[in-house]
Amino acid sequence: MIRLLYISTARERHSPATMEDILRVSRRNNVAANITGLLIAGGNRFLQVLEGPDENVRQTYDRICLDERHRAPVILKRESIEERAFGAWSMGFQQGGGAMSPAAGVNDQVAALVAPIDDVILKAYFEGFARQHAA
């Protein structure tokens, strides 16, 4: 199994309805491919981690790279893993400036999402991204 973390830029900002469509399709595809992960959106930037069988993760990432809604995808970390950090989610999601609860800011929301993760580098990528795109 592998974990792949990447960042990319959307060619244009996505509306909430478009994001819901992307998530619905991604979650369906990820379940079928035995992939789990987390997606954080901030403005027109995305930080995403995918976990699962090597070939399935590679095919999913290749499909994302070919998606014309994205540009400049960059792999930040790729590693073999024994167990998943995001096993409960076909695709967890947090929108910068969104609200899991009215009192929580995006930094707190992302911190809560990644709190169970043991990998300090992976956690730092998500927390740093959230700080940068919290507005």
- The best one-word shape is globular
Ends apart, CA distance between termini: 35 Å
Biggest sheet architecture: 5 strands, mixed
Number of strands: 5
Oligomeric form of this entry?
A: single chain
The share of residues in extended strands comes to 25-35%
Strand order of the largest sheet: 4-1-3-2-5
Please provide the ordered H/E string of secondary-structure elements.
EHEEHEEHH
Please explain how this structure is put together:
The chain has 135 residues and is of the alpha+beta class. Helices cover 39% and strands 29% of the residues. It has four helices and five strands; from the N terminus they run βαββαββαα. It has helices at residues 16-33, 54-66, 106-114, 120-132; strands at 2-10, 36-42, 45-52, 70-80, 92-95. Strands 4-1-3-2-5 form a five-stranded mixed β-sheet, with helices on both faces. Helix 3 (106-114) packs antiparallel against helix 4 (120-132). It is globular and about 35 Å long. Residues 97-103 have low confidence and may be disordered.
